[in-house]
Every structure is written in C-alpha cells, then in structure tokens.
C-alpha cells in the first residue's frame, strides 16, 4: 500500500513540474505554438495613390538672364549712390576719352575705364536708351563722373572757363556724377554724323544747328530732344554735354580707379 501511495505522489510531482516549465517558456516568449500576426489597426500609413491621381512632374524651366543685373531688393540703392552705367544699360558704348591720350589735352587725365554716375541719373539714362532704341540708335559715353583731381588737371592744361570749369571757383558738374558727354552710334557701334567731334571748341559745336547738314542737324536734335524729354538739360556751347536736372552735391571721396572690375 505504501508503494502505491509513493508512486501516486511521484507522478503528481512530475505533473506539477511539467506545468511550471510550460508556463516559464510562455512568459519568456519561447512557446513553440504558432504565433499570431500582430494587429495593424493602429499603424498609420499613407493611402496608396493610383497613377492617375499623381501630380505631373514639373520640368525645370530655363533661366532667362535679365538684360541688366539689377541690384538685389535688400540693397535698397539710393539715387545718390554711384553705379557703373553698363551694369544697368548693357547696350551703351563707353569710350572714356580722358582715360586715354585721345583728347584735346593729349594726356591721360584719369586711370579708370568704366563710366560711373549717380543711380538716379542712370535711371533716367535707361529711359533715354530705350527711347532711342526705337530709332535703332544707341548711346556712347565719352565722359561721365570726373573726380575733382581730374578737373584740376584739366584746368592746368587748358585754363579757359568757357570750356573748362575752374575748380578753384566751383566744381565741374561732372564731379557731381549727374553729367555725361555723349553721342549716338548705330547698331554696329559706328558714331553717327554730328556737328563736330568731342571737345571741339569752335562755334560749330554749339546748339545752333543751322550751320550743319540736314542729316547732322537731325541726329543732334534727336539726341537733344530725347535727353530733354527724360530730365536732362544741355550746355549750349557743347552739343554733347548733358546734365541731369536733379542736382547732386559734388563728390570728393568716390574714386572709380580703386574699384576692381
């Protein structure tokens, strides 16, 4: 009888041990039973989109360069600022006579090649250029901003107040940055027929065009009328000389020769 009871107790202990082992395996995730798939009801995904619902791919558009490199909005250029004319009027021709010996002095008066003017004056000159382009003619600059030091040099060479401003008395309008010596050229850059060449101090250089040929007078009047219509006034004794009607103070500090190009 004791043997039977011992066997029953042994079998009961073995059964209890097997149940604990299975429970331990389940808690450790090593149950050999087939796993069930996790629920996807809480996973957020973008709904599939059919090809007909997709936006067409935008092809990159070609960048068309502007005719002139205008200042960035944050620069906020003022009319009094000096700028290079060709930055705003790329079609203009610049041949600064006083940067060479090809002038009435036979000497180099200043050592820079780019024409500089006040930004306010350049804006008016832009309008002049646009108006002249309708006639298939363009502007050519012989002189623009002229530093006071250059004016003193001119006066030393040619001390005649009828044609050279005496810097000991007053500044030249060129030193204000609102004055240009200018002529007309065709689409190939050839100068049009005008009453005289640059810095001609004879009576032929004045604005009485009755002593000129009809073609010459027509060209000179086209330049004069267009400049006057856009805010410039001319000097009677020099058909090429025009000043912005907006007057700026003389500039003593700005020096184009130190600007890198």
What does this structure look like?
The chain has 261 residues and is of the alpha+beta class. It has one domain: Muramoyl-pentapeptide Carboxypeptidase, domain 2 (2-Layer Sandwich). Helices cover 26% and strands 12% of the residues. It has helices at residues 2-27, 119-133, 148-157, 214-229, and strands at 82-84, 93-94, 116-118, 138-143, 179-185, 232-235, 238-244. The chain has a five-stranded mixed sheet with strand order 2-4-5-7-6, with helices on one face. Strands 1-3 form a two-stranded antiparallel ribbon. The protein starts with a helix and ends in a 17-residue tail after the last strand.
Task: Please summarize what this structure is.
Helix content is 26%, strand content 12%. It is built from 4 helices and 7 strands; from the N terminus they run H-E-E-E-H-E-H-E-H-E-E.
Q: How much is the radius of gyration in Å?
A: 43 Å
Please state the second-level CATH architecture.
2-Layer Sandwich
| Helix-strand topology string | HEEEHEHEHEE
**Average pLDDT level:** 79
Task: Please identify the top-level CATH class.
Answer: Alpha Beta
**Helix/strand structural class:** alpha+beta
Q: How is the CATH topology named? A: Muramoyl-pentapeptide Carboxypeptidase, domain 2
Percent range for β-strand residues: 5-15%
Largest sheet: 5 strands, mixed
Number of beta strands: 7
General shape: globular
